[in-house]
Write a structure and sequence with these properties.
Elements lengths: L6 H18 L3 E6 L1 H6 L11 E3 L6 H14 L6 E2 L8 H5 L5 E3 L7 E6 L1 H14 L7 H12 L5 H5 L5 H6 L1 H9 L7
Parallel strand pairs: 1-5, 2-3
Antiparallel strand pairs: 1-2, 4-5
Helix pairs in contact: 1-3, 5-6, 5-9
Length: 188
Amino acid sequence: MLREKEFSVFLEALNSLDKKLKGMGKHIVIHAIGGFVMLYYGIKEHGFTIDIDTMTKAYDDSIINAIAEVSKEFDLEKDWLNNDCANLEGFMDELFPKIKWEKSSYEFENIELFIADPIGMIRVKAKAVHDGGLVPRKTDKKDLMLMLKKININSIYELDGDLELDFIKKEYSRTYKFLTDMKEWSKA
């Protein structure tokens, strides 16, 4: 059974992991995307997530073990800090360099936490919708709509008038079609 948790639990887990890393003399960098980032931005329609998705390459075994220890401590999924996205086709080569990575407002000693900026999260969700979902999930379309609303894009006309979001039309035609076919954005 998936164990969804609130944002605050993940912050506590990161603090615990930070202490473990300090004791091990290790340091990691996290480039977060997904539900954790949506909660970070105050988008709480879901209110919970099961993990912190990260576009960070593989951790060594000692760090993976520390992550697993923290999972037991906070009743999280074993891979609550998961880098599956880093292995998805097109994510690292295509998306990573196009995302603006903002330093998190939360400080750690042995963890550098970077958050995808809102446009970067829209890019991630647009790709997920275009590709049919990371794991075919209903939430990707809803998440895309919520992120667009976060930056005050509330209609296809506003989207079409925003040059910064032109990549949706140019790179993700199936996502653009979904947005064009949407009758009432306010109900999405």
